[in-house]
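thread: overnight batch results

M.L. [08:02]
morning all. the overnight job finished for the chain we discussed friday. pasting input first so we're all looking at the same thing
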Amino acid sequence: MSLTPAPRPHPDTGPRAGRFRLRPGLRPALRLRVRPRLWRPSLVALLGASCLGGLLLAPTAGAADDGGADGRDERALQRQLEELVATPGGPPGVIVVLQQDGSPRVLRAGVADLETGRPIEITDHMRIASTAKAFSGAVALRLVQQGELSLDSTIGDTLPRLPRAWWPVTLRQLLNHTSGLPDYSEDQEFLDLLLADPRRTFDPRRLLDFVADQELRFPAGSRYQYSNSDNIAVALMAEAATHKTYEDLLRRIVYRPLGLTGTSLPLGYEMPEPYMHGYAVEPPAPPEDVSEALSASGVWASGGIISTPRDMTRFIRGYAAGELTSREILHEQRRWIRGASEPAGPGRNRAGLAIFRYDTRCGVVLGHTGNFPGYTQLISATPDGRRSLTFSLTTQVNARLTPDLVERLRTIEENAVCALLGPRRG
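M.L. [08:03]
and the structure it wrote out:
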């Protein structure tokens, strides 16, 4: 899930132009506004870069220059995080949680709040963006295991109020983004409403109505195309099958079993304290706090969840290992097809059912990425869930907004995977 601001041209004023440095005892010059300056041009590409999903399959562009042997040294990774924060257009803060069987190892650079200089903690709340799609996948796959849904359940079976042209689409096709559903987040009426009031509360269960007059973009199952509509439909199917709200299903199926105490799906714009402040960073302008610029109701099951690095670590370890479902369903989830998360994750990307496979030079991890104004996320774990990586930035980075920076980020993410896994053997 991403709301993708369009970059504004500005004069070239040197390689470190417009970058801030936070000095002890000093506050940076920030202007905090409810409705940030960048939204009007940016929402043309709302929530999405969905048109880019599946195109970003190239391997990560080489190891960072100071990464050492395969970037495995955590001290080298720490330097790379600090350099990322110091880069023009880079994030004001970053936190990386590496965990094997024991206690997490936490690396961080920058701050959670530019006004106070407070460091990021693993209990800070943040918008998790499209990694929320893994949560809807967790709910759906559990319901499949319980027999309340099938991977072959169709929109026509469960959601007959939706357009007849969509009826053949299956749950499996929604979960691996081969459904062909038109993306509601690209609809002009939706964009106009959001532009008029970014904090508007949408009825999340009617989001697909914005594109109900449209046919499928391609025959269901014929190709991959990342779409925010898919996971809205997944959540609606889960509700229809159980007669429970999606929020209640999240609590019952995901939060409680995995011990997620700082995770929620709000409909408003407010962030729970304490939280990482998310920023729009467009040098030479100062960073602008956009943490509470938007209501989460317009993204809902596709990207509206708020969580913490600690909870996300717990989630991905359990989700990747299949703790919430059966071995048989896990096998179905891992039928990989050509496709990439948005933004693309480290290494070569392939798509499964609400999870992606990232083949890196140091080994394989499974997970999901996401980006939203103020935040960029990667969660991943080994297929057995014993080693995990949570990587969170406090600005939005994606191929449409910052193509050079996203490739640099993917390199650092791959180095983080290598720090987690060690060298590939054999």
